[in-house]
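Weekly modeling sync, notes
Attendees: S.R. (lead), two postdocs, one rotation student

Agenda item 3: backlog of single-chain predictions. S.R. asked that every request posted to the team notebook include the full sequence so nobody has to chase files. The rotation student volunteered to paste the first one in as an example of the format we agreed on. Action items at the bottom.

Example entry:
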Amino acid sequence: MSKPIVLTDDSVINSYGFRVMTAGGELTDYLKNPVLLYDHTRRHGENDRDIILPIGKMTDLRSDGSRIIGTPEFDLEDKFAAEVSRKYDKDIMNMASIGFEAMEWSTEPELMLPGQTLPTVTKWKLKEVSITDIGANPNACKLSHQGFTLTLNAATRREDIEAFFKTQQPTNPQMKKVIAALNNSKLVNLSEASGEELVAEAVTTLSAQLSAKDQTIAAKDAEINRLKTEAQAAKENALKERATSLVESALSAKKIVAAQKDNFINLASQSEEGYKSVKQLLDSLQGYQPVVPQLSGGPVELPTSKAELVKLHDKYAKGEASWKELSEDQIKQIWKAKHGKEIHSSTLNALLGK
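Predicted structure, as returned to the notebook:
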């Protein structure tokens, strides 16, 4: 039986500058078909006759602290696989390499080891395991993400690996939240695999659109405030017109004197409650009446015929009754009936004792 072999070890940085966290590995799908390949490929040459079928399978795949360990079981009936097995048993070829789908990675400080130059893969799915030729492919592994594959070996350029981690951005939880928040705005539409550059562009686009919307909202708010101001002014003007009409009516009815007019208008114009209070007060007031008629029991009622008015004039002229119990209009009416002309103002004042 072949000896166990280490597939991953997250306590060390691989020769490419990144590392793969053991705890983040998903092995379930691979264990359903745990094929063992040679150098991550099934093709050995340019012709179909050079196609290499799987050389065996992995058994006893398990976690061991920071490592994932498994035991290769070679198909000894296959000539090429038997040759690889022989070299493996003799420690001529004693390295395994994994092909995996990188799903999430991070450069958070707590996940980076001293000397690590590329991200730490925190979530990954095992696709295949290969026995690799140390001389040709030291520390070989096969890296993929959402359909993009990069086979890492001695010939791989560092800038290609850096480009992979830069352009094939992980769908880590934080990035997922950012992308979800952006998509919820309904103004952008990003896939979960969007990289930092695309997300940054989306943020810029969203900021511009929101700024435009803010300006539109600000303009509408200003228009609303203007209309509110105009409506309030119109309401206040209408109330003042009503208050003025109310007070002028009270003044005409001699319920108040002219000196009180402005004060009543101001009170009634302050609010609807003020208007109602002033109206209630004015409605309760009686119009002005001469004092003498009130003291004598009430206003004098004049007869309608001229003859009766002449008799009434003579009565007042003889002193049988006081002119002061009559109003100015009544004296004018009696005087005209008697003398056939209007009474002179000086005579009227004299009769009233002014």
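Discussion: group reviewed the output briefly. DSSP finds eleven helices and ten strands in the chain.
Action items: rotation student to repeat for the remaining queue; S.R. to check formatting next week.
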